Amino acid sequence: MTQGRSPAIAGWLGGSSEGARRDFAKDKGIARVFALALLLACAALFFPVASANGNSMASEARYEGVATCAGSTCHGRAEGNGAVVRQDEISTWQSPSSQSGAHSRAYAVLAGRRGQQIADSLGLGPATQAADCLGCHATFAPKSQRGPRFSLSDGVGCESCHGPAENWLASHYARPATHASNVADGLIPLDNPQVRANNCLDCHYGSKNRGQFVTHAMMAAGHPRVSFELDLFGALQQHHDEDDDYRSRKGRMNSVRFWAVGQAEAVRRSTSLFTDTEYGMEGAFPQFYFYDCHSCHRQIQDSDQRRLSFEANPARPIPFGNPPFNDENIIMLSAVAKALVPAQADNFLAASRDFHKAMGTGSGDEARAAAASLSSRAGALSNALSQRAYAGADAFKVIDMISGRATNARFTDYSGSVQAVMAIDTLLNALVREGRITVAAAASIRSNINKAYQAVEEPNAYKPSDFRVALASASSAIGRLR
């Protein structure tokens, strides 16, 4: 993400149906300030299928390419008027300007001026041929697994998210087929929030697969800062309607579950990567990708009157002047745990404090051990959040916890504040989808949400105290709609 733009979203994912939600995101450009990140950092999600669904048979399956899905009787119609699925999924994926088409544009971005400038700075040669880029800007399948209609230039294609199609392409639409049988044939079960989160995180945070880790050097060369929120990203890239047929096959999707599990898996992914010295270190220095960018990238002034450009964070026991680990997802997960899994909340909070303390005063081995412990706690929360039953008031509970005194005081940094306002808006949308709040009622408090967005619109103008006031105001406005 460029330093001059906020990764916050400026619109509301409103609507009473999945179609309305997707169309609003597509037509209104809801994530206008996510545009560059989605263009430059869109995921190839080359996630080994065996890891995603336990089917080792599919791990060596062939990738057949987008063209195999594009028939007019399959997913290539001009209009979404199919009896079972929309059938215009390719058209949505190829949208030339909206966020729903960002994955299809990912490869083309590499050939652009900025993409090649980044590759030149890193000595990678042509960006469109660099494995360090293709891992997330295309469906980067091994050459031995590429079918005759496969093309890297398709960008992040269907099989990046749904898995190599060789074993399920010819059968997944047949009447005897079920979702379970398709998964058994290698289709990635994206209805499972943990599977979906890890599939997305491979590129929207990083993985150990080739070309799926954004280093600090890449960001220094011009790559945008990476930020992730599962329910939001899922809405922007959603090419289906959650109608009765969909629910009969895959069940009802719950936005609070997907958002919460996404936060937990983001913490588990970031801390688990940090424990590996190949990723957590860069020579004698830590890999700065894991740190909060704005803790170092501040204006430097030399004057008689000291003017601090940061606030101490009550949940980060680190020495004065030390750069903090980027804890935007840790803050959110702490709030989720208190609201929805209180039995695990104190242990997670203690593990996060121990991690920050070890980062500031411990050795490298101590910091990695603390990261491993925190990763384990995040995993336990992910399991609990994925398996629990969700009630209609859950979104209200989490919103209250995010804006409450204990959590609100932790919004001292730009990245965490951006994640918070995205969460408030995502959870508001969940309340609309569940029928707990009407579209009109949500629209009536749009100005309160927008004030919170305005507080993180410009990183260099960010003021923690102003943001906390704006967030509390937005939360109070939502609370009045109970």
Describe this structure in words.
The structure is a single chain. The chain is mainly α. It has a two-stranded antiparallel sheet. The longest helix has 24 residues, at about 365-385. It has helices at about 20-30, 35-40, 50-55, 90-95, 105-110, 115-120, 130-135, 160, 180-185, 195-205, 215-220, 230-235, 245-250, 255-275, 275-280, 295, 330-340, 340-360, 365-385, 395-405, 405-410, 415-435, 440-445, 445-455, 465-480, and strands at about 280, 285. A hairpin with a 2-residue loop joins strand 1 and strand 2. The protein is built from 25 helices and 2 strands.
Would you summarize the structure shown here?
With 482 residues, this protein is an all-alpha fold. The protein contains 25 helices and 2 strands.
Strand arrangement across the biggest beta sheet: 1-2
What share of the residues does DSSP label as strand, in percent?
under 5%
Distance between the termini: 36 Å
Number of helices: 25
Helical amount? 40-55%
- Please tell me how large the radius of gyration is: 22 Å
Task: Draw up the topology in text.
Layout: H1 18-28, H2 35-40, H3 49-53, H4 89-93, H5 106-111, H6 113-122, H7 131-137, H8 158-162, H9 179-184, H10 193-204, H11 216-221, H12 230-236, H13 244-250, H14 255-275, H15 277-280, E1 281-282, E2 285-286, H16 293-296, H17 328-340, H18 342-361, H19 364-387, H20 394-403, H21 405-408, H22 414-433, H23 439-444, H24 446-454, H25 464-479
Antiparallel strand pairs: 1-2
Helix pairs in contact: 10-14, 14-17, 14-19, 17-18, 17-20, 17-22, 18-19, 20-22, 20-25, 22-25, 24-25
